[in-house]
């Protein structure tokens, strides 16, 4: 995305959009990072011919990383949905109990957490070969600037960071992970450096843009752009739905651990107390399964049919891990109901409606947990990201939470990324609240009443 930012201006243009399909080979599921990098840099180069580009910054999904030796990527990064993470959980469980780990890093128990994946790499001897680990946005920053560093918001999703923001060296030792693998930490707003001449030349980038560190965990950037008022909960809605509140400090009481809430670092030292809910993944994977059966259907058509589907549908637990990476999502949903003796919904319209009702139900339960655990009363929900375009889901969320829903902006991660860059470049100033005010002035959220 190309953004033009000023004190009263926040204009976003889509320079390119390209698929990000993980690839299954014999050793598992991997991301095509070189393709993503070249697609992005080609789009930036094209944009730099139209207008002078002064800054570049990358944000992405969390937890995944590349292993390097003497500056070269050793292997193609794995996708966090690869089944090796089950073994990773076992390896970490063998060393430390979940409550102890939670007290140290405050992260939800999920197979995808970086320490689980690194523990599998250690068991397979990959870490002996590596001298550096870089999260995916940091890998792109390294390829652009030659500098190796890890931005803090994404580092907080690894499980290797203490609640005080330092690497947990004792835990690394317990897990047999070399601390020297971890480059220095940097904060969002840091100038990473100029583009390497070779990169500029290879892609034909005009001008001399600086690379900035921003909230490199896309959810952290999305929350920057969420026009949160006091009493607001946020839902960062995309492949995943992240339901949470922004707090000054992590919440790691036993109740939070039992409810499997996570504490991930935000921009400006904030804390994101939140829960992962399966999100649009449920719908995109169902659509993929129907396409594979030769019954492809457009998303708009699915949502129209679901909106018109007024027969009662049951709801399933949209946080249940069986939905993490099933081969056939509609079958997994039917299986969830069958295992509980509940008649599953039949047909695409009913299943889609069931997915959206189940998501809204999970949001309402997460928000009730947040109120109980944090003591904060939630008076509104801000839904940002691609899922905020789903008006049926926004309506169901307002109905099930019982509070007004404010939907938008859609491109929240990109906007949060741009705002932090622009402030680091001195074009904007002020606090997160000031940045959010600009968002509210430019992007009027759509309101849905309970
Ligand atoms: C693993 C997920 O990607 C992560 O929990 C989520 O916050 C995210 O990054 C969504 O893009």
TrEMBL record:
<dbReference type="GO" id="GO:0008993">
    <property type="term" value="F:rhamnulokinase activity"/>
</dbReference>
<dbReference type="GO" id="GO:0005524">
    <property type="term" value="F:ATP binding"/>
</dbReference>
<keyword id="KW-1015">Disulfide bond</keyword>
<dbReference type="InterPro" id="IPR013449">
    <property type="entry name" value="Rhamnulokinase"/>
</dbReference>
<keyword id="KW-0067">ATP-binding</keyword>
<keyword id="KW-0808">Transferase</keyword>
<dbReference type="GO" id="GO:0005829">
    <property type="term" value="C:cytosol"/>
</dbReference>
<keyword id="KW-0418">Kinase</keyword>
<keyword id="KW-0547">Nucleotide-binding</keyword>
<dbReference type="Pfam" id="PF00370">
    <property type="entry name" value="FGGY_N"/>
</dbReference>
<dbReference type="GO" id="GO:0006071">
    <property type="term" value="P:glycerol metabolic process"/>
</dbReference>
<protein>
    <submittedName>
        <fullName>Rhamnulokinase</fullName>
    </submittedName>
</protein>
<dbReference type="InterPro" id="IPR018485">
    <property type="entry name" value="FGGY_C"/>
</dbReference>
<keyword id="KW-0684">Rhamnose metabolism</keyword>
<dbReference type="Pfam" id="PF02782">
    <property type="entry name" value="FGGY_C"/>
</dbReference>
<dbReference type="GO" id="GO:0004370">
    <property type="term" value="F:glycerol kinase activity"/>
</dbReference>
<dbReference type="InterPro" id="IPR018484">
    <property type="entry name" value="FGGY_N"/>
</dbReference>
<dbReference type="GO" id="GO:0019301">
    <property type="term" value="P:rhamnose catabolic process"/>
</dbReference>
<feature type="domain" description="Carbohydrate kinase FGGY N-terminal">
    <location>
        <begin position="34"/>
        <end position="224"/>
    </location>
</feature>
<comment type="similarity">
    <text>Belongs to the FGGY kinase family.</text>
</comment>
<feature type="domain" description="Carbohydrate kinase FGGY C-terminal">
    <location>
        <begin position="234"/>
        <end position="425"/>
    </location>
</feature>
<dbReference type="InterPro" id="IPR043129">
    <property type="entry name" value="ATPase_NBD"/>
</dbReference>
